[in-house]
Write a structure and sequence with these properties.
With about 80 residues, this protein is mainly β. About 0% of the residues lie in helices and about 30% in strands. The protein contains no helices and 5 strands. The chain has a 5-stranded mixed β-sheet, with no helix packed on it. It is globular and about 35 Å long.
């Protein structure tokens, strides 16, 4: 995600990539299956469970959340997006 801020700039986001320490409010980089699998997404954890997380991925619609796997970069099924 280096360079997302522009040429030579560091990524403007700070992510938690350690699924063991995930907590509500953490920013995560997550992936989406299917046709969107090549794109990185940014979201905020709104729930953290033993084997999955709930991610707010749309800043314009905070009520919309996606269920993702609990791993360093959670995976969300394309059907949820």
């Amino acid at each position: 995600m280096d360079g997302m801020g522009g040429a030579g700039e560091a990524c403007p986001f700070e992510f938690n990539f350690d699924e063991k320490t995930f907590k509500v409010g953490d920013s995560v980089s997550y992936r989406v299956t299917g046709s969107l699998s090549d794109f990185p997404f940014v979201g905020t954890l709104v729930e953290v469970h033993e084997d999955y997380v709930m991610i707010a991925g749309d800043p314009n619609d905070p009520a919309k959340v996606y269920r993702g796997t609990r791993e360093s970069r959670p995976v969300v099924d394309e059907s949820e997006v």
